[in-house]
């Protein structure tokens, strides 16, 4: 989206990030953690004004929805992968080949237990599966309402908000887990078209 050259580095240990989690970038020797700070850094350093939202009311709306995605829908996605037994079966089959046989199972169990604790501490993990997915589906529905018949979410152009929205929606749709959250996206044709549109614009470079 910024037309900047970059290389993707695969790191299995989140502890190597500056704040002990992913993602982070390294730009000219400086490590910047957290997707929101990364976006702000890139816009500021490389004068990416075309990705900003100029209307103050729309900017406030974007911030609220961005927080919903990153702080609420994120835990629904985490639940579908690591807490829900059906999702964890898929995660385990995908992750196990990355580790030596002796440590794979206990290491994944350790990660899962920690993420279950995080989910309960945040609050979503205290609900039943049906309640968790009902909450996430409402969040997906609200994104569909926000998008409406527009090509992009704000100001009829690609903005920084699309970086967050597309990342989450695309991840949910492309992951091999048939969760109710994915079904929720499929139920909204405008979100499916949005993902396809963003794929055509940016998908080959990510």
Structural class: mainly alpha
Q: Total number of helical segments?
A: 8
Order of helices and strands: EEHHHHHHHH
Q: Which of globular, elongated, flat, extended, rod-shaped describes the shape?
A: globular
Structure, explained:
- The structure is a single chain.
- The chain is mostly helical and 206 residues long.
- It is built from 8 helices and 2 strands; from the N terminus they run ββαααααααα.
- It has helices at 35-45, 56-83, 85-95, 101-122, 129-147, 160-174, 180-186, 189-202; strands at 24-27, 30-33.
- The chain has a two-stranded antiparallel ribbon.
- Helix 2 packs across helix 4 (101-122) and helix 2 (56-83) runs parallel beside helix 6 (160-174).
- The radius of gyration is 18 Å and the shape is globular.
- The mean pLDDT is 93.
What's the short version?
The chain is mainly alpha-helical and 206 residues long. The protein has helices at 35-45, 56-83, 85-95, 101-122, 129-147, 160-174, 180-186, 189-202; strands at residues 24-27, 30-33.
In terms of topology, how is this protein built?
Layout: E1 24-27, E2 30-33, H1 35-45, H2 56-83, H3 85-95, H4 101-122, H5 129-147, H6 160-174, H7 180-186, H8 189-202
Antiparallel strand pairs: 1-2
Helix pairs in contact: 2-3, 2-4, 2-5, 2-6, 5-7
């Amino acid at each position: 989206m910024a037309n900047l050259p970059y290389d993707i580095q695969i790191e299995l240990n989140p502890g190597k990030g500056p704040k002990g989690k992913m993602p982070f970038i390294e730009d000219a020797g400086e490590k910047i953690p957290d997707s929101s700070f990364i976006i702000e850094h890139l816009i500021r350093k490389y004068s990416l004004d075309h990705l900003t939202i100029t209307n103050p009311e729309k900017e406030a709306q974007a911030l609220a929805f961005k927080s919903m995605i990153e702080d609420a829908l994120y835990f629904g996605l985490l639940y579908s992968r690591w807490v829900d037994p059906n999702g964890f079966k898929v995660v385990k089959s995908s992750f196990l080949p990355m580790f030596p046989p002796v440590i794979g199972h206990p290491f994944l169990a350790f990660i899962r237990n920690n993420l279950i604790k995080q989910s309960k501490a945040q609050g979503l993990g205290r609900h039943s599966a049906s309640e968790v997915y009902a909450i996430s589906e409402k969040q997906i529905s609200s994104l569909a309402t926000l998008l409406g018949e527009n090509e992009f979410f704000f100001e009829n152009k690609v903005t920084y908000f699309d970086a967050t929205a597309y990342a989450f929606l695309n991840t949910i749709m492309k992951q091999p887990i048939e969760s109710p959250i994915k079904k929720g996206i499929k139920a909204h044709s405008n979100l499916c078209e949005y993902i396809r549109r963003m794929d055509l614009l940016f998908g080959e470079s990510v």
